[in-house]
């Protein structure tokens, strides 16, 4: 008969206490005598367990009960605005002769039990008959008219009844805000782009784009309800509005197409045109999103064109990566199809690349058996096109 296996499990709960101490020096102790029963001297506040505390020392005692006035009293008060703080306490007077014969009362040495106390703001815990006043004035604890009182506080984690908590739902503000996208009924401006109409809200556009804010609210001329947008494709403008309302890239396969020999030049890519739109309307987060997509397509064959694009639209993060990649693969990049046109159309980028190499940002990869050609000797197998200052319409704007 097979033996029966016994499954056993175990768990452990550990409650940790946060402890801290504060030393309260009362110099000129003799001057405190006779201030009156119930009158106290307060220490500066100190923090233990995320709560503020203070020591109250009563030279003539805390109340007038029989024999109580012959004792000094000491209390600790919760200063923070909090409720149900569970803590343990200890008071000590230091032996100022250096013989370590301290006087200690509290929870940690079990002289007053080990049960924690629960306090709220302004409530105190302490010892009414802490030490006989006459004996104190002739003890090793009071030297040179100075008394040192130490208070140790140990804060325990608050135990809460989960059944009395209220679960909060996830915020829906982003979803609700996004529902305004293309809501014709509540819109107050219409954009006409390539025969398509897009409905929007001036206040939303102005809040997201400084360009739209200036267009709608900073001029003296009345803004038309319908605005014609030239030199931009409808799908690009739709992606722009989608980001403004939803703070995400529009879900479109074309936006993330990878490089292939059959595709148009990178300057004609959807994401490149969206980068240009983000630059035009001052949307830095959208720019970075587009830069991130283009960054994934950096290669020996594409880096020169992407570098030109990043420079054209002030895409600084993408430009830095292009320069670094080019410096690390200099020999291969110099032989690439796009470098000749980079030299012709953007000579300053050639200079920046050389400066990057000289600065040693990357480890330049050079074929030791190959001779690096002069830039003007490099042949381009397939001509790529780059916009110059007088050819701004190439990208379709």
From TrEMBL:
Its main location: membrane. Residues 19-153 form the MATH domain. Pathway: Protein modification; protein ubiquitination. It is found in: Endomembrane system. It is a peripheral membrane protein. It holds the Pfam family BTB. Residues 187-253 form the BTB domain. It comes from the Eukaryota. PANTHER family: BTB/POZ AND MATH DOMAIN-CONTAINING PROTEIN 1, BTB_POZ AND MATH DOMAIN-CONTAINING PROTEIN 4. Belongs to the Tdpoz family. This is BTB/POZ and MATH domain-containing protein 4-like. It comes from Vigna radiata var. radiata.
């Amino acid at each position: 008969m097979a033996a029966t296996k016994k499954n056993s499990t175990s768990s452990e709960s550990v409650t940790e206490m946060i402890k801290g101490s504060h030393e309260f020096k009362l110099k000129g102790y003799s001057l405190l005598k006779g201030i009156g029963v119930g009158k106290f001297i307060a220490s500066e506040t100190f923090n233990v367990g995320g709560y503020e505390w203070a020591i109250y020392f009563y030279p003539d005692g805390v109340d007038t009960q029989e024999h109580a006035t012959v004792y000094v009293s000491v209390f600790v008060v919760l200063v923070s605005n909090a409720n149900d703080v569970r803590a343990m306490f200890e008071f000590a007077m230091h032996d100022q002769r250096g013989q370590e014969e301290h006087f200690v009362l509290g929870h940690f040495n079990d002289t007053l039990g080990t049960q924690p106390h629960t306090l709220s703001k302004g409530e105190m815990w302490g010892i009414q008959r802490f030490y006989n006043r006459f004996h104190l004035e002739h003890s090793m604890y009071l030297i040179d008219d100075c008394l040192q009182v130490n208070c140790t506080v140990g804060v325990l984690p608050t135990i809460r009844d989960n059944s009395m908590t209220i679960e909060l739902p996830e915020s829906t503000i982003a979803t609700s805000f996004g529902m305004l996208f293309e809501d014709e009924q509540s819109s107050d401006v219409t954009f006409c782009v390539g025969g398509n109409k897009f409905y929007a809200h001036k206040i939303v556009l102005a809040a997201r784009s400084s360009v739209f804010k200036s267009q709608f609210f900073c001029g003296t001329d009345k803004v038309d309800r319908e605005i014609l947008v030239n030199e931009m494709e409808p799908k690009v403008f739709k992606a722009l509005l989608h980001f403004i309302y939803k703070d995400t890239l529009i879900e479109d396969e074309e936006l993330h197409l990878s490089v292939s020999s059959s595709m148009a030049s990178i300057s004609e890519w959807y994401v490149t045109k969206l980068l240009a739109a983000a630059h035009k309307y001052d949307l830095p987060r959208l720019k970075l999103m587009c830069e991130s997509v283009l960054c994934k397509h950096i290669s020996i064959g594409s880096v020169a064109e992407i570098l030109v694009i990043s420079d054209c639209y002030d895409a600084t993060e993408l430009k830095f990566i292009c320069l670094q990649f080019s410096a690390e693969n200099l020999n291969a990049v110099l032989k690439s199809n796009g470098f000749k046109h980079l030299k012709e159309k953007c000579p300053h980028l050639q200079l920046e690349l050389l400066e990057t190499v000289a600065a040693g940002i990357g480890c330049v990869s050079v074929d030791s058996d190959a001779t690096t050609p002069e830039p003007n000797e490099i042949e381009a197998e397939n001509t790529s096109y780059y916009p110059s200052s007088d050819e701004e319409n190439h990208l379709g704007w």
